[in-house]
From TrEMBL:
Pfam family, one: PK_Tyr_Ser-Thr
Domain Protein kinase: 1-126
GO molecular function list: ATP binding; MAP kinase kinase kinase activity
This protein's name: Kinase-like protein
Listed SUPFAM superfamilies: Protein kinase-like (PK-like)
Protein species of origin: Armillaria gallica (Bulbous honey fungus)
One GO CC annotation: cytoplasm
Protein keywords: ATP-binding, Kinase, Nucleotide-binding, Serine/threonine-protein kinase, Transferase
Record InterPro entries: Kinase-like_dom_sf, MAP_kinase_kinase_kinase, Prot_kinase_dom, Ser-Thr/Tyr_kinase_cat_dom
Length: 126
């Protein structure tokens, strides 16, 4: 979700996921049921990954990268994949949304790919 404030600042939000992130209990069986799979960072999809609380906001940076792709394509990330199970497998395997060739400049695409990196510690800070 993109929320726009009165002074026209845009904020990414997914209230179900933000409530989940504030929880002290992060068990792998409940991770994927929170948030929107197409925008969910790999560390919240892969049950073998331990989530480092120091990088908890990195999931929002990943979602931002997915949102930029959606804005430029007019379609949600992974729109070529029809079911959530296949999206989960693709993200765990390292697949990321495809570059919209005719719409994104190289500099912006470089930012998007950095936002979509698998390692939360390598994503930009907000």
């Amino acid at each position: 979700n993109i929320l726009v404030t009165d002074d026209l600042c845009c904020c990414l939000a997914d209230f179900g996921l933000s409530l989940f992130a504030e929880s002290q209990i992060l068990n792998s069986s409940s991770r994927m049921s929170k948030g929107s799979i197409r925008w969910l960072a790999p560390e919240y999809i892969d049950p073998d990954v331990v989530i480092d609380q120091a990088y908890i906001t990195a999931r929002d940076i990943y979602a931002y990268g997915c949102t930029v792709v959606e804005i430029y394509t007019g379609r949600p990330p992974f729109s070529d994949i029809k079911n959530e199970a296949s999206i989960i497998l693709a993200v765990i395997a390292g697949k990321r949304p495809l570059r919209p060739q005719h719409l994104l400049q190289d500099g912006l695409w470089s930012l998007v790919t950095t936002c979509l990196t698998a390692s939360p510690s390598e994503r930009p800070n907000a």
